[in-house]
Amino acid sequence: MITYQTTKQFTPQALQELFLSVQWSSGEHPQPLAAALKNFGSVFSAWDGDHLVGMIASMDDGVMNAYVHYLLVRPEYQGQGIGRQLVARMREHYRDYLRIVLGANDEKLAFYEACGFKLADAASLMFITDMVN
After folding, report:
1. What is the SS3 string spanning 12-29?
2. Which residue, of 4, 24, 54, 89, is most buried by count of CB atoms within 10 Å of its CB?
3. Residues 102-132: pLDDT tens digits?
4. What is the pTM of this model?
């Protein structure tokens, strides 16, 4: 049975396993990742017993805007509604905010649209990555 938590306390190993399971390079930096998650505005996680199987994490300005930075579910748990449940919990948490923003890979657009997100007009995701070794 999947349970959901609001903790920001994760072992680096649990994060590494989750992030690398979906081939996200953040998993190659488990110590800074564990420290960073403590600073997020909100974090909801999905657990199968004591096994971390999914997570959504966002930053916010405290009033109007929330930015979903991570949403990931281990591949063997995908298709079970865990991602939708995590999004629903985040949406409820920020129900009084003006907007919730996220960046999505093109192959995931249908999932996010089914969760209520709309594609922005004439917008492109941009970033700078300078990971410390």
Report:
1. HHHHHHHHHHCCCHHHHC
2. 54
3. 888 888 888 888 988 888 877 766 767 765 5
4. 0.88
